[in-house]
Specification:
Layout lengths: L7 E4 L14 E2 L14 E2 L8 E2 L3 E5 L7 E7 L2 E6 L6 E6 L4 E8 L7 E7 L2 E6 L11 E6 L8 E4 L5 E4 L1 E2 L17 E7 L2 E6 L7 E7 L4 E8 L4 E7 L5 E8 L5 E8 L10 E9 H4 L1 E7 L4 E7 L1 E3 L2 E4 L2 E6 L6 H5 L1 E5 L11 E3 L10 E6 L4 E5 L5 E3 L6 E8 L3 E9 L1
Parallel strand pairs: 2-3, 4-23, 9-13, 15-19, 29-35
Antiparallel strand pairs: 1-29, 5-28, 6-7, 7-8, 8-9, 10-11, 11-12, 12-14, 16-17, 17-18, 18-19, 20-21, 21-22, 22-23, 24-25, 25-28, 26-27, 30-33, 31-32, 31-34, 34-35
Length: about 425
């Protein structure tokens, strides 16, 4: 007979060694996954998740100056953005909440051949001029701009001796002949800065995949590290401020065109695709537009921006900003604090109406969040409640998360 006492696994992330290695078991340690393994003590990247729909919160329409917005990033306490190729070589300081432009920064003698994404590494901004729609560019590079040279006036000029262009080439590309746009493998629209180097994510139109490249800015080599079946085209990337979560934004054109993103976390060994990979469906292009830019403002929240979509001179989707919050799927505590996983402690389980949660003996303030199998938030409470009335919830699997400054407790239960 199974014990009624909870089975708990404690992950002490500050520990520099792994004890009792003989007892370690790889598998999926995420309770939100369909194949969650309560015995797993190391993540082998096998977690599988249900189809998860999430609607970012619309904020405001961007001005016409940013109707082809392609990069969005928070650095130095401010938000920055830029347009796609063919537009002036201008960096914009903007306020995503109201979609207003606070400042324009012109990079003298720079060329916006095809600016596609924006990131930062401490004191510098990095602007990726690596759009490669036809596979034939041999002048790819990244603009490196010190934040310190940007003044405070509404219209700033940055001299060409103040920015640096860092050329690079893909070490695995040998054919530079012009290719049809739907067959290109070396287009790129996504970049983050991690461990002292830019990291790129290709937009492989032929395979609908993305390859993760590490750029050596000293040699110009962009080395392929790993490939993910993105099931669409990746258009932007962002790294959370705590360095624990990467999001890849993209769109899929098959059927009704739609927007999606991949959440990547709990990776290891210098790679990003060997940990948890969860896809969120963000809506169709007609509602959200062609999303081309994403950026974190806090560890789990930020903004998405889409460029204007037109057909026969008619605007289908205006350029807009949207707010997102990914904390329901990747709590900060998963990566930064002790995670305590409790196996099926709700009572009864399965439950039909009233469900009882265990007494954790925890008097700290926190948040109780309940999500369904699709990741939708059913309930959020700022206090711990021992009993919940679930009569109005549909049948299905639910995850109960208690999050406070020192730990996260994750529980599961089946509603009949």
């Amino acid at each position: 007979m199974r014990s009624l006492y909870p089975l708990r696994f404690f992950f002490f992330l500050s520990c520099g060694c792994v004890c009792f290695q003989s007892l370690a078991q790889s598998g999926c340690p995420d309770p939100q996954a369909l194949n969650y393994n309560s015995a797993a003590t190391s993540n082998d990247g096998s977690c599988l998740y249900p189809v998860t729909n999430y609607t970012p919160l619309p904020k405001a329409t961007l001005p016409n100056d940013l109707q082809e917005i392609s990069g969005l990033h928070f650095a130095g306490g401010r938000w920055w953005g830029h347009n796609d190729g063919g537009n002036p070589s201008v960096l914009y300081r903007l306020l995503p909440e109201t979609a207003t432009i606070a400042q324009k920064i012109n990079l003298q003698n720079a060329d916006n051949e095809d600016w596609e994404d924006l990131t930062s590494g401490g004191t510098h901004l990095y602007i990726g001029d690596f759009g490669n729609n036809y596979n034939d560019r041999q002048d790819l590079g990244i603009y490196r701009l010190p934040l310190s040279v940007i003044g405070a006036t509404a219209n700033e000029e940055v001299n060409d001796n103040e920015w640096t262009f860092l050329p690079f080439h893909y070490t695995d590309q040998t054919d530079f002949t012009t290719q049809p746009e739907d067959s290109t493998e070396y287009d790129c629209e996504a970049m983050i800065f991690l461990s002292g180097n830019p990291h790129l994510f290709s937009k492989n139109r032929k395979q609908r995949s993305t390859t993760h490249y590490l750029v050596n800015t000293a040699t110009g080599d962009a080395e392929p590290l790993e490939t993910l079946d993105a099931q669409g085209f990746i258009t932007s990337a962002s790294l959370s401020p705590d360095g624990k979560l990467v999001v890849l934004l993209g769109y899929e054109l098959s059927g009704v065109p739609k927007i999606f993103c991949w959440l990547l976390w709990d990776w290891h060994d210098g790679l990003l695709f060997n940990g948890n990979k969860r896809r969120l469906e963000l809506g169709n292009v007609f509602a959200v537009g062609q999303a081309e830019a994403i950026g974190f403002g806090t560890n789990r929240t930020g903004y998405i921006a889409n460029e204007r979509v037109t057909a026969n001179g008619i605007t289908i989707a205006a350029q807009r900003t949207y707010a997102f919050d990914f904390s329901a799927w990747v709590p900060e505590s998963v990566a930064t604090k002790t995670l305590e996983i409790v196996e099926s402690p709700v009572f009864p389980n399965p439950f039909s109406q009233m469900v009882q949660l265990p007494d954790l003996g925890d008097n700290q303030p926190g948040l109780l969040r309940v999500t369904d199998a699709q990741g939708r938030v059913m309930l959020e409470m700022s206090t711990w409640s021992g009993t919940l009335n679930t009569a109005h919830w549909p049948s299905g699997w639910y995850v109960f998360s208690w999050i406070n400054p020192t730990r996260t407790v994750i529980m599961q239960g089946l509603k009949q």
